[in-house]
Amino acid sequence: MRISTFFYTLKQGIINIFRNKWFSLASVATISACLLLFGLFYSIVVNFNNIVKTAEQGVSVTVFFEDNLSEAKIQEIGKLIEKRAEVAKVVYVSAEEAWETFRMEYFGEEYSDGFTENPLENSSNYEIYLSDVALQGSLVTYLESVEGVRQVNRSEVTASTLSGMNVLIVYVSVGIIGILLAVSIFLISNTVMIGIQVRKEEINIMKYIGATDFFVRSPFVIEGIIIGAIGAAIPLGLIYVVYNTVVEFVGERFTMLNTLLNFLPVQEIFNTLVPVSFGLGIGIGFLGSVMTVRKHLKV
Amino acid sequence: MSLLKQPKEKKIPSEDIIVLDNVSKSYATGAPALNGVSLTVKQGEFVFIVGDSGSGKSTLIKLLLRELLPTSGELYVNGQSLVDLKRRNVPKYRRNLGVVFQDFRLLKDRNVYENVAFAQRIIQVPNREIRKNVPSILSVVGLAGKYKAKPRQLSGGEQQRVALARALINRPPILLCDEPTGNLDPKNSWEIMKLLEQINKKGTTVLVVTHNREIVNEMQKRVITMKKGIIVSDEEKGGYIDED
User: Fold this and answer.
1) Which residues of chain A carry a pLDDT beneath 50?
2) What's residue A230's pLDDT?
3) Is A174 exposed, middle or buried (0-12, 13-18, 19+ CB in 10 A)?
4) Average pLDDT of span B209-219
């Protein structure tokens, strides 16, 4: 392709957008609406996932040992636990540390001085953090079977709630993405149908004069790509503003929720959302224009 | 003598620019639009094709444009078989034809210059040559001063001249005109026909499908008359034959 032909094609693609400004506007609006819904939903899901994940990370199983179990044996058990697939992290809490935490939490500095001995002498333990909360049951069964283990404390309710939430998120995500996809296809195919009517005559003339399919298609494809890119950029800008506003609003108005609602920074969401939105927008624009033109190339 | 069967190849005399050999075209419904039509057009000829609606004229033009393929028979243009022509080679083939339609078929949102230049852009003529060629062809059709006008700002006659300029700018050996005066008043019709005659005198083969009795009778060119898909008369310096 000659450079002049390339620039001519590019120029025609840009001019086409302005020539058919209502059609272009409808296409941009359609793509924007779909990607805005997608982006908002994605931001909510990612944040929800993050909240659940943070909560999951706090779920731990505590293992206590039989009285007078040797330090060496406790360490041996610790190594066995660390090797388990269900385990993300193991923290050893000595009897002294356990007492220190307990007395600071419940008595304060001055009242606890009355104790001369450690009342929690046999309370050295392992706090075990899980790689997946759903695996808590199997880990507890294993731990209870380990020789030297006196007691295993578990947080069954939290674990089952969180793993249930995870499954729910997956179902809701698949459902909403499915609905969004169906709506997008409907809206885009409608817009493409309008495009076909607008372009029918123009494509026919080009073909009668002897233009190749590539020459006819190229300006439309460029037009589609530009429309797709604009259609992606608008919702991204909106989401950026809305997201920051919501995070700020929730942070200021609902301070008590701050520990629970741990919002991800917008940059982290945009690391994925920007390439995916542009990919989808440009992809939709490209496919839409190719489909529009294809039907009329057989002249 | 070789025992191998040689593929059948039709010899086309070099001066025969259009050859139809027993061409038929049937659509899914109704009687055949063309029924065993054979004709040859020599290079540099000016030919009128006349006939009533449903006589097969439009089908003939569509076959020559390679918009349709014949149901049977052979069709050659410039020595090239249109039956064997692959789809991907159709654009290249069409560049050897200038085409003018009754409804002008101009790109409505582009000005006169861009409409004419478009025919050169598709064959990737450099911009500097397009800048020379377009004004030159526009002056041939008498529209040099209107290169900035949009089609809607022009009269029917002027729009047809633009279409003619677009058809001629790549100097095609054949010019196909489908009812070129169908939407024009008598004055503009004659002007277009005079232009076509001039173009023909410079060596371009011109094929004009028309209903315009006065022009056909006046110009005294070869006239092929069609009726119900067959050629009923083919006369040198002929006239419009009445139906009755």
Assistant:
1) none
2) 94
3) exposed
4) 91
Residue position matching structure tokens 């929730």: A250
Quote the minimal CA–CA distance from B94 to chain A in Å. Answer: 5
3-state secondary structure of B41: strand
pLDDT tens sequence across A24-59: 888 888 889 888 988 988 888 888 888 877 777 777
Cα B207 to Cα A5, A129, B49, B102, distances in angstroms:
32, 88, 7, 14
A-chain residue closest to B105, CA distance: A205
B165 inside 8 A of chain A by CB? no
With CB atoms and an 8 Å threshold, state whether A2 touches B94: no
- For residue A60, with 0-12 CB atoms within 10 Å meaning exposed, 13-18 middle and 19 or more buried, which class applies? buried
Contact A211, B122 (CB under 8 A): yes
Q: Find the helix packing angle between B127-140 and B112-121, rounded to 10°.
A: 120
The whole-angstrom distance between B128's CA and the closest CA on chain A is 10
- Nearest partner of A130 among A175, A100, A160, A102, judged by Cα: A160
Contact flag A210-B123 (C-beta cutoff 8 Å) = yes
C-alpha B155/C-alpha A42 separation (Å) is 57
